[in-house]
Amino acid sequence: LSWSRKGPNPQQRHLMNLAVRYYCDEVSVDLDHLYVWLDILSIPQLNNNVRVLAAQALCVYSMASDALVIIAPDSVHEDTLEASGIHTYQSRVWTRVEQVAHMAAHGKSSIY
Fold it and tell me: SS3 for 15?
Protein backbone atom coordinates (compact mmCIF):
# COMPACT_ATOMS: atom_id res chain seq x y z
CA LEU A 1 0.00 0.00 0.00
CA SER A 2 1.62 3.14 -1.23
CA TRP A 3 0.93 6.28 -3.22
CA SER A 4 4.42 6.22 -4.72
CA ARG A 5 4.85 2.51 -5.52
CA LYS A 6 2.49 0.81 -7.97
CA GLY A 7 0.91 -2.53 -7.42
CA PRO A 8 0.32 -4.77 -4.44
CA ASN A 9 2.78 -5.03 -1.59
CA PRO A 10 4.55 -8.39 -1.06
CA GLN A 11 1.96 -9.62 1.46
CA GLN A 12 -0.94 -8.73 -0.84
CA ARG A 13 0.83 -10.34 -3.82
CA HIS A 14 1.43 -13.55 -1.86
CA LEU A 15 -2.23 -13.71 -0.84
CA MET A 16 -3.33 -12.98 -4.41
CA ASN A 17 -1.26 -15.90 -5.67
CA LEU A 18 -2.78 -18.19 -3.03
CA ALA A 19 -6.28 -16.96 -3.86
CA VAL A 20 -5.84 -17.61 -7.58
CA ARG A 21 -4.67 -21.16 -6.91
CA TYR A 22 -7.52 -21.73 -4.45
CA TYR A 23 -10.08 -20.42 -6.95
CA CYS A 24 -8.70 -22.63 -9.73
CA ASP A 25 -9.01 -25.68 -7.47
CA GLU A 26 -12.48 -24.61 -6.29
CA VAL A 27 -13.98 -24.29 -9.77
CA SER A 28 -11.73 -26.85 -11.53
CA VAL A 29 -10.16 -24.47 -14.01
CA ASP A 30 -6.60 -24.64 -15.25
CA LEU A 31 -4.47 -21.66 -14.25
CA ASP A 32 -3.54 -21.16 -17.92
CA HIS A 33 -7.23 -20.48 -18.69
CA LEU A 34 -7.84 -17.96 -15.93
CA TYR A 35 -7.93 -14.23 -16.53
CA VAL A 36 -7.50 -11.86 -13.60
CA TRP A 37 -8.59 -8.23 -13.57
CA LEU A 38 -6.70 -6.49 -10.80
CA ASP A 39 -8.32 -3.24 -9.75
CA ILE A 40 -5.26 -2.06 -7.83
CA LEU A 41 -3.43 -1.72 -11.17
CA SER A 42 -6.37 -0.89 -13.41
CA ILE A 43 -7.43 2.49 -12.07
CA PRO A 44 -5.33 5.34 -13.54
CA GLN A 45 -4.04 7.59 -10.77
CA LEU A 46 -2.41 10.55 -12.52
CA ASN A 47 -5.50 12.24 -13.97
CA ASN A 48 -8.32 12.75 -11.47
CA ASN A 49 -11.05 12.89 -14.16
CA VAL A 50 -9.92 9.59 -15.68
CA ARG A 51 -9.61 8.06 -12.22
CA VAL A 52 -13.21 9.02 -11.41
CA LEU A 53 -14.46 7.57 -14.71
CA ALA A 54 -12.56 4.33 -14.11
CA ALA A 55 -13.91 4.06 -10.57
CA GLN A 56 -17.43 4.55 -11.88
CA ALA A 57 -16.91 1.57 -14.20
CA LEU A 58 -15.88 -0.79 -11.38
CA CYS A 59 -19.41 -2.15 -11.07
CA VAL A 60 -19.34 -3.21 -14.73
CA TYR A 61 -16.12 -5.17 -14.22
CA SER A 62 -17.50 -6.67 -11.04
CA MET A 63 -20.69 -7.81 -12.75
CA ALA A 64 -18.76 -9.27 -15.69
CA SER A 65 -16.39 -11.24 -13.45
CA ASP A 66 -17.09 -14.85 -12.57
CA ALA A 67 -15.70 -14.31 -9.08
CA LEU A 68 -14.89 -11.43 -6.78
CA VAL A 69 -11.86 -12.10 -4.60
CA ILE A 70 -11.17 -9.60 -1.84
CA ILE A 71 -7.56 -9.31 -0.70
CA ALA A 72 -7.41 -6.97 2.30
CA PRO A 73 -4.85 -8.18 4.83
CA ASP A 74 -3.94 -6.16 7.88
CA SER A 75 -1.07 -3.91 6.86
CA VAL A 76 0.24 -0.37 7.12
CA HIS A 77 0.13 2.21 4.33
CA GLU A 78 3.73 3.12 3.43
CA ASP A 79 3.05 6.84 3.00
CA THR A 80 0.40 7.63 5.61
CA LEU A 81 1.44 4.96 8.15
CA GLU A 82 -2.26 4.31 8.72
CA ALA A 83 -3.50 0.82 9.46
CA SER A 84 -5.27 -0.84 6.56
CA GLY A 85 -7.18 -4.06 6.13
CA ILE A 86 -10.69 -5.40 5.86
CA HIS A 87 -12.00 -2.51 8.00
CA THR A 88 -10.70 0.12 5.56
CA TYR A 89 -11.79 -1.98 2.56
CA GLN A 90 -15.32 -2.10 3.96
CA SER A 91 -15.36 1.65 4.58
CA ARG A 92 -14.96 2.55 0.90
CA VAL A 93 -18.13 3.18 -1.09
CA TRP A 94 -16.75 1.76 -4.35
CA THR A 95 -15.86 -1.55 -2.73
CA ARG A 96 -19.46 -1.89 -1.54
CA VAL A 97 -20.63 -1.06 -5.06
CA GLU A 98 -18.36 -3.80 -6.44
CA GLN A 99 -19.83 -6.32 -4.02
CA VAL A 100 -23.46 -5.37 -4.65
CA ALA A 101 -22.96 -5.36 -8.43
CA HIS A 102 -21.30 -8.77 -8.33
CA MET A 103 -24.02 -10.21 -6.11
CA ALA A 104 -26.74 -8.79 -8.39
CA ALA A 105 -25.24 -10.67 -11.32
CA HIS A 106 -23.97 -13.85 -9.63
CA GLY A 107 -25.21 -14.13 -6.05
CA LYS A 108 -22.92 -14.24 -3.07
CA SER A 109 -21.46 -17.72 -3.54
CA SER A 110 -18.73 -16.45 -5.88
CA ILE A 111 -17.39 -13.80 -3.51
CA TYR A 112 -14.21 -14.89 -1.75
Answer: helix
